[in-house]
Amino acid sequence: MLANYQETQGKLMLCPSILSADFAKLGEAVALVQEHADVIHVDVMDGHYVPNLTLGPPIVGAIKPWSKKLPLDVHLMVAEPMQWLEAFAGAGADTLVIHAEACAHTLRALQQIEDLGCTPGIAINPGTSLSVIEECLPYVDMVLLMTVNPGFGGQSYIPSMTDKIRRLRVMLDQLDHPVHLQIDGGVNEDNIAELYAAGADMIVVGSSVYAKPDPVAALKTLRAACEE
Hints:
By secondary structure, this protein is α/β, with parallel strands linked by helices. It has helices at 26-32, 57-63, 85-91, 106-115, 161-173, 192-198, 207-210, 215-227; strands at residues 13-16, 40-45, 72-77, 95-99, 119-124, 142-146, 180-184, 202-205.
């Protein structure tokens, strides 16, 4: 399925990250949340761009059949992301998100993602200025703002990112097409409502879902917190 985020503008989208799931049971972890999530988030790390090594195209291909209702949102935390776009698209990625800091030719990469039939997204780290992606915004359907330093799950949210969410939301609302604002890192039931109110509408949730005894109940709690 193509992740057509323009059709979901204004809707809260919860994106469980399988980085926090049991790697021996990834397929089951994906299937478990099908009825209660909106997107499956796949964190790809290469041990170079970030200090961790996770999974590659074969794993994306293996979990694709388990994600029958939800798009696979593949977040490429890798050096030289352009060399990986075709492989991950072929494995079943619906969205490909590249880091502005890791790509010398961002517009070319975003066009390649679209040519591969995937939804293009761009990500930035907590310490990167929003001005770095300003020229790319007309060419994406989603911007991912990291709210922890990338590399590991289970980190604490960086409080200063809330103001950055608000500033990015203003930038996105000035565009002539809808663009989702995704955040990733340190989101839990205590802060999700504040971050949603600040302007984040695609929210990655990892340990706050898969580290819980009942991931489905955890998703329900997170969604309810935003609806209060």
